[in-house]
Amino acid sequence: MNILIGTVAAAALIAMTAAAPALAEDVQLMDGVTARGGDNPLSDAGKFKKDCPWVIGMSHFGVNANTWTVQVAHESEAAAKKNSCIEKFILLDAGFDQKKQVADIEDLIAQNVDAIIVQPVTSTSADASIAKAVAAGIPVVLHTGRIEGDAYTTEIQGGAEHFGKVMGDWLVQKVGNDGKIWVLRGLAGHPEDTNRYNGLKQALEGTNVEIIAEQHGDWQYDKGKSVCETLYLNNPEVDGIWSSGADMTRACVDVFKQFGAAIPPISGEGNNGFFGQWIRDGFDSISAEYAPAQGAAGVRAAIALLEGKQLYKHYDYNPDGWGIEKVKQYYRDDLSANVWWPTELPEEKLKELYGNN
């Protein structure tokens, strides 16, 4: 009798466990991503649960803005391809056009997709459309840029202030309390640019470090090189450079080499081309981490919601900066300068997209 009761109880427990939603803590979005502390509500269990197959849409703020944004698209598509429940993955490119992003999200709503992932062009460009999607019962995952509204279902945010402060704190140590620095910013108006810059300002608080030049290089190599050439010709006497993105860092390093000048301490980012430069030329630098695999994390968040799992409203991604020894572990001389680290792309895909041969 006791055996029978125990067997029935065990079976009931198994059934209850199978029916219960997975805890939010059990959902692994990406290495280094954690639920934010403090007031952080959970989505309702099973609210967005749907049977397979699914159609997931993504509004990308600008696929061809630079090599990092291209890889975000590749990482997102690869993550979607790995899940057999995703029948179709629709990636729309806003091209940094606010009106285009609004139209893209409303197009995805009209197609009755099962979930939408949004990388906002600006802090307000997607607010109204996201609210419409959620009102239509479509969960919305936000990443790579914060917005002013809060209608989205969940967000995964690389701490832009953290990113900027990691580089700023390092640079202050290198240039000293009275150093003079250049600041290379990203795309004007983009929330990531604004918030990374705010992180730099936090690092400069209480110091006498002076920003003697500040320009937007749009996170691009060509624009960054033009900016750095102009700054150098105007006044080459600079103690250090805070660069908001590795493509601009690479460009600035090339400018100093072009003029035969010593390369000042300059901040960088997890880009293969920059890593190669740093290793070869031996200048002082730090690599802030901002993985393009955030694209894959956004897809995994959408999958979790459609599986009926609960997610927290806010997730943060605030990794430490990388030194030269860690950089040497990641650098690949058999891949092009356009790869960004860390990545989740499989080896065969890396070689297909970025192989030097």
Strands of the biggest beta sheet: in what spatial order?
1-12-6-5-4-2-3
CATH superfamily of the largest domain: Response regulator
User: What is the distance, rounded to the nearest whole angstrom, between the alpha carbons of the first and last residues?
Assistant: 71 Å
Ranges where pLDDT stays below 50 over 5 or more residues in a row are 1-22
Protein name: ABC transporter substrate-binding protein
Subcellular location: Cell envelope
Main location: other
Pfam families: Peripla_BP_4
Please provide a written account of the structure:
The chain is α/β, with parallel strands linked by helices and 357 residues long. It has 2 domains: 20-158 and 292-319, 3-Layer(aba) Sandwich (Rossmann fold); 160-269, Rossmann fold, CATH 3.40.50.2300. The chain has helices at residues 2-19, 67-82, 98-110, 127-135, 160-175, 191-204, 221-234, 246-258, 272-281, 294-306, 324-330, 347-354, and strands at 33-35, 54-60, 86-93, 115-118, 140-143, 154-158, 180-185, 210-216, 240-243, 268-269, 287-288, 314-317. The strands form 3 sheets. A 7-stranded mixed β-sheet has the order 1-12-6-5-4-2-3, sandwiched between helices. The protein has a 3-stranded parallel β-sheet with strand order 8-7-9, with helices on both faces. A two-stranded parallel ribbon has the order 10-11. Helix 3 runs parallel beside helix 4 (127-135), helix 5 runs parallel beside helix 6 and helix 7 crosses helix 8 (246-258). The longest helix has 18 residues, at 2-19. The chain is globular and about 60 Å long.
